[in-house]
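Service request form, structural biology core

Requester: graduate student, group of Dr. S.
Request type: structure prediction, single chain
Budget code: on file
Notes: please return the result as structure tokens.

Sequence provided:
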Amino acid sequence: MVDGKAAEVSKNEHILPKKPGHRWFLLSGPICIILLVTIGLPVCYTIFSSFWEKRGYSATVHFIGFANYASVLTDEAFWSSITTGFLYAVISSILQLVIGLWGALFVIRRGRYRNLLSSIIFLPYLLPSVVLVILWTFALNDSVGYVNYVLRAMDILPPQWFGEATIFWTLVILSVWQFFPFVFFAIYGRLTLISSELLESAELEGATHIQRTWHIVMPELKSLILSIVVLRFIIMFMKFDIPWLLASSRGGGRDLLTPAVYAYRVAFERLNIGMAFAITTIFLLILAIVMIIVIRISRSTNAEAA
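Core staff response, request fulfilled:
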């Protein structure tokens, strides 16, 4: 019996690699290959194509060096899209964080009603963007929208939700309403892992709810909140579907020029594919710089905490 087990062990030793490097490749190699094919190659192709002139669907291309980048950086619409995208990402991300954090802190104390409230909060996140825009377009309609009806009933003059001066804030409202559940569930899940004994002992020592939240809960959420802010900023900065659908549905397409919408118009309206590749490369560079800054901040924060 012992000899049989020894033979089996000896057989397994020939199957499993002895060197750690081989074992690492077997475990991480497939995912690295997938990332290379799905992310690495498209990024390299985008950067390479940004140095060529390509118009429409023609197969004719000409090497023009940095001319596409010069055209992008001298285009006023590019800088307008950067400004709009930055403001949109910052404002909507902060509002999503505030509402999601408050909602998670509220629901976690509701006892047996937590599952019901969580299910209701999750509903906006399930809606497709097309359905979301249609619902809010009717809700904010000047004639039949119930939002304006309620505001008029309260003697409040409703704004022109889809006007040139206000459509940006309408976009922010729609985006926050749809995506704050993501922040809510990320923070809610982390709150369930915080020791209840620690909170109860702090309460017995006379700490108020605000003190317990600030001195016990928030330090536990600090790294998670930083990750959420970065993730939401990147996603909202490059958001395409909601700005495009909202602007197109009201004929205000030029009033919501976000970075993704700008790149789309250059590629499929101007039919300047090479310039669109240059725009995408610049946006990738911007996001990479943001990630580097955030990683350094995160490391310094973790070092201080340690």
